[in-house]
Design goal:
With about 260 residues, the protein is mainly alpha-helical. It is about 70% helix and about 0% strand.
Length: about 260
């Protein structure tokens, strides 16, 4: 058995160790009795002690099978230990109902929050620790609600984050932050590009007044291309929908290279 530090006591080995201790006590076996029954070697008593005290997060399969057989632990009970404890129903609702939560429910919530040493805490201490986390959870819910009012353009993203938070998925909230930052960044970038494009369009109009068609074409092309960073399709759309007509109309009225340059767009 490999001994690894597992301060939270959430590993399979730690949970198996607690189960072993429960079965051993129920059967009235001493640690020495079980050690001899499993290994036929009283000197292995310290190995059993480390296991029962959660010091062996990953016991080897042969050890698990031997101890389970000695204590007649059903295989399905061992399999259940390998899966993370589940929280029935809505995670947010579970936090609001801590006063009625069972020990298993509290341990499941503690596992989700990564509360160190939760399995060794008394019911009162564990409930107190969870109440503090519940306060932080509710504060995050409040912050998300305030964010919706502040940034209505992010409403869909925030609503999804609220739903995921109620399921206990804090990583989804962090992903929402990343997505929202990108949306706001793109919005600020677009606003700046639109302002810059408006100035370039004035520049192009002044150039056309001076019959400087090639220079106006270059300016309008630059204005269109500046949007490529936020939408690869937008430069072409701007060229066709906004700038083609300007150069075409100039060419129709004044001749010269206006019509040619409008086709280049």
């Amino acid at each position: 058995m490999t001994e690894i530090d597992d301060p939270q006591g959430n590993s399979f080995g730690a949970r198996f160790g607690r189960l072993v201790r429960t079965y051993r006590d129920d059967l009235g076996l001493s640690a020495r009795d079980l050690t001899i029954k499993v290994w036929n070697d009283e000197g292995r008593k310290s190995s059993l002690s480390r296991l029962e005290n959660g010091k062996v997060p990953n016991p080897d399969a042969k050890t698990v099978q031997a101890i389970a057989a000695a204590l007649d632990i059903p295989p399905e009970e061992i399999d259940a230990l390998r899966a993370p404890p589940a929280i029935s129903g809505d995670f947010g609702a579970a936090l609001y109902a801590l006063s009625r939560a069972s020990r298993d429910q509290m341990e499941a919530i503690a596992t989700r929050f990564g509360i160190a040493g939760a399995f060794a805490m008394s019911d009162a201490a564990l409930r107190d620790a969870l109440e503090k986390r519940a306060e932080e959870f509710r504060a995050l819910q409040t912050d998300l609600a305030a964010l919706r009012a502040r940034f209505p353009q992010l409403d869909n993203i925030i609503v999804q984050a609220q739903e995921k938070l109620d399921q206990g998925d804090t990583e989804a909230v962090r992903q929402m932050v990343r997505n929202a930052r990108q949306v706001l960044h793109d919005a600020r970038l677009r606003e700046a590009l639109e302002q810059d494009a408006a100035l370039l369009e004035i520049d192009a109009a002044a150039l056309l007044l001076d019959h400087k068609v090639d220079e106006a074409y270059a300016v309008l092309s630059a204005a269109a291309d500046s949007f490529a960073g936020i939408d690869p399709m937008e430069p072409a759309q701007r060229r066709i929908l906004r700038y083609f007509g300007r150069l075409r109309d100039y060419g129709l009225h004044h001749g010269g290279t206006g019509l040619i340059r409008s086709q280049d767009l």
